[in-house]
Amino acid sequence: MKTLKTEHLFYIPVMGLGFTIDSPAKVAHLGIDSTISIVDDGLMEKMREYYCNKIDIPFQKISKNVEDFRAKRITEYLNTIDEVVEKKYDDLKKSVTEKYDEFKNYFELLPDRSTIKEKFKSKIKDVQFFDKMKSWVNENISLGSIDVNIMTKLDNANYKKGEQLPIEDNDAHAALRGFANSNLKSSIVFSAGMNNRLYSYIEKFEDFYPDKNFFLKKKIILKVSDYKSALIQGKFLAKKGLWVSEYRIESGVNCGGHTFVSNAAPLGFILEQFRTNKESLIDSVQEVYVDGLKNKNRNSPEKPLDVKITVQGGVATNEEHEFLLNYYKVDAVGWGTPFLSVPEAVSVDDYTLDILLKSEEKDLYLSKISPLGILFNNVRNNSQDLEKQRKIDDGNPGSTCPNQYLQFNTEFTERPICTASKQYLKLKIAQLKTLNLSDEDFNEKYKELTNKACICVGLSVSPLIKNNIDITPLSNGVSICPSPSMAYFTERTSLVDMIKHIYGKKNLVKKEKLHMFIIELQMYLNNFIDEINNTELIGKREKNKFRKTKNSLIKGIEYYKTLFQQFPKELKNFKQLLDLESKLEKITF
């Protein structure tokens, strides 16, 4: 696959396990980067069959009886998507002469600051250029990257005939191997923190090392929550001769999916650290990288390889997009939740899309449905939660746990099980009955336990439903995890219109919206208050933790007060900022 520097200033990040499972097949030929989750190999196998039939290429099923089936399924799916993209890309290039208006659309979608767009505009003024257009296009237009994502903590051990398999067969290890063995020239995004064993496993794959021209066939992207984490992880990998090509900064709460609120450091405050320390980060990692390559007897570059700093989490307007690009100097901005309203780009079933488009601020909330015990962005009336409630009403709570990706609990069993499973709930409820709790306490505990949802299935089944693919043995309950920005997108939107919105040529947000930084700050503050209120005994340890959180929020508010005063357009958010400051000052513990 041909790879050139992308001209777009946005990308579509991973969403759930299935919502972006085939996004590259929809948008990569137009030069748009997007990310596939490679957690669910069963989903990928079904989607591979779907696409093989669609583009008429042979399909041979990879059963669970095949050795290393998980990695092989992932490899074959990624190679199939690569073929789909290549075919669409070839059709696009053919349209240069056959369907010029269709081809011209490729350039019209690009931002006005795109160098390729400017060159094209200049070239087409020359009548003689049309004879050379085909060769010029081949040399200049670029595909979007088919990136993949692994949650590093989803690295469960696997078993065969009751015997635990080697670490290399753990979920995340096998997924990494599946990507490494694929034909892709793209990036793997590591999210949810550092996994030393997984990072060390990358060393085994040649594509992650630079060739003689210092080209990386496979690149590494780290999703990070702060500067310190980026520096630590970047150096850890560099020591092994592995370069981080992108640091993807994500809001701790205003991002959709699981939320990570431990340090409560607001996004703008974190971005400022990267803005002022980017060169220091790159130089520090480069020094370690050179030594790491030398220790492996490999040639090392005299200058650092390319590094991108990108950001995602809560962006919903062109003004926010431009502010992130121009003030913080990030290379691109991730637009996730808004694309849930774009059927041309993501795979969302009709029922789920309908409730998303009807959702208001009050319908989008932080829930406790995740078996991981981490707060999870949710929308009311999603079909997974409705199905879960029906089972509770029938006196049969819990999931059969068909996918088994979130099996971490060993309270009752030697082998980990999931806290949303029937097996766990049956054991836990039986335990509760022995504790002689009051009816009120028992009912409260029961409600809390049965609130956990099977998000492994819920986050993956939507593309199967949408494409009328057999979902056996899964349920048809869909979980969806948008950020609060979903409330501002109320209609099904075309890909063209969403891109126009991103680049300021159309406005899809019809109602007044607080700045993404203020929304995030509100979420942090509300979570802080909930945490204090739900802590039964506040001792010295808890006070120290709360004090750190409060100080972090105070620093963030002070930073925003200074920041917004520099930009008159942002002063409209100043009152809300002062209100949050006043609310924070009143918090005691």
Please specify the SSE layout and strand pairing:
Blueprint lengths: L9 E2 L11 H5 L6 E4 L3 H15 L13 H30 L1 H9 L6 H9 L5 H12 L5 E6 L7 E2 L2 E2 L6 H10 L5 E6 L4 H6 L16 E7 L2 H12 L5 E7 L16 H29 L12 E5 L5 H9 L5 E3 L15 H9 L5 E4 L8 E4 L3 H11 L28 H11 L6 H12 L4 H4 L3 H5 L28 H8 L13 H18 L6 H26 L8 H12 L4
Helix pairs in contact: 2-3, 3-4, 3-6, 3-7, 9-10, 14-15, 19-20, 19-21, 20-21
General description of the model:
- The structure is a single chain.
- This protein is an alpha/beta fold and about 600 residues long.
- It has a domain at about 350-505.
- Helices cover about 45% and strands about 10% of the residues.
- The chain has 21 helices and 12 strands.
- Strands 1-10-9-8-7-6-3-2 form an 8-stranded parallel beta sheet. The protein has a two-stranded antiparallel sheet with strand order 4-5. A two-stranded antiparallel ribbon has the order 11-12.
- α3 packs parallel to α7 (about 170-180).
Tag the structure with descriptive keywords:
589 residues; eight-stranded parallel β-sheet; two-stranded antiparallel ribbon; 12 strands; 44% helix; globular
Give a brief description.
The chain is α/β, with parallel strands linked by helices and about 600 residues long. The protein has helices at about 25, 40-55, 70-100, 100-110, 115-125, 130-140, 170-180, 195-200, 225-240, 265-295, 320-325, 350-360, 385-395, 420-430, 440-450, 455-460, 460-465, 495-500, 515-535, 540-565, 575-585, and strands at about 10, 35, 145-150, 160, 165, 185-190, 220-225, 245-250, 310, 330-335, 365, 375-380. The chain has a domain at about 350-505.
